[in-house]
Specification:
The structure is a homodimer of 104-residue chains. With 104 residues, chain A is an alpha+beta fold. Chain A is built from three helices and four strands, in the order E-H-E-E-H-H-E. In chain A, helix 1 packs antiparallel against helix 3. Chain A is globular. The model of chain A has no long low-confidence stretch (mean pLDDT 96).
Amino acid sequence: MIFTPPYYVVVFVSQRTEQDIAAYDAMAEKMVAGAQKVDGFLGFDSVRDQTGKGITTSYWRDEQAIQSWKINLEHQEAQKLGQKRWYEYYDLHIAKVERAYSKS
Amino acid sequence: MIFTPPYYVVVFVSQRTEQDIAAYDAMAEKMVAGAQKVDGFLGFDSVRDQTGKGITTSYWRDEQAIQSWKINLEHQEAQKLGQKRWYEYYDLHIAKVERAYSKS
């Protein structure tokens, strides 16, 4: 999925630990449902391979929409668990999309 | 890996076909080697899952570096094969990174 620029992309690159896989999956589903309720959430793509490395890219209308999701209480709980338990490492890049192309 | 903003991220989301997997893997390796020679290439992350969905995020100093790689002749050959043969679909988002965070 692409959108008409300008919009924002949040790139989340992460390495999962082996801990709590069922709890993690349940939380991940809850987070998708939560993000979808945020005004200005446009969509996301997500891939994780067998080694546990994952990239999730979420798309947002503007910075305010990203901020609303960042401070969401359920999301903050998930962020704490992510830092403590679920991710060996992660990187976040917040970027403004200037151009987008697609081939279908 | 994160860098000190501002820099650029190119988000490439794709669905692989089942065709030519060995040739594709060889080409992918060549493309990584080629991109690494471009002045202004900073690094990349790449994940593909068992369904063939992949996300590759590459990081660049500026738009000129992205442009140099876009018009590279070997890369243009690869782009043609990608469109014709290797990808069912793909999306490209070119974005300027404003903030970046990491947990290691």
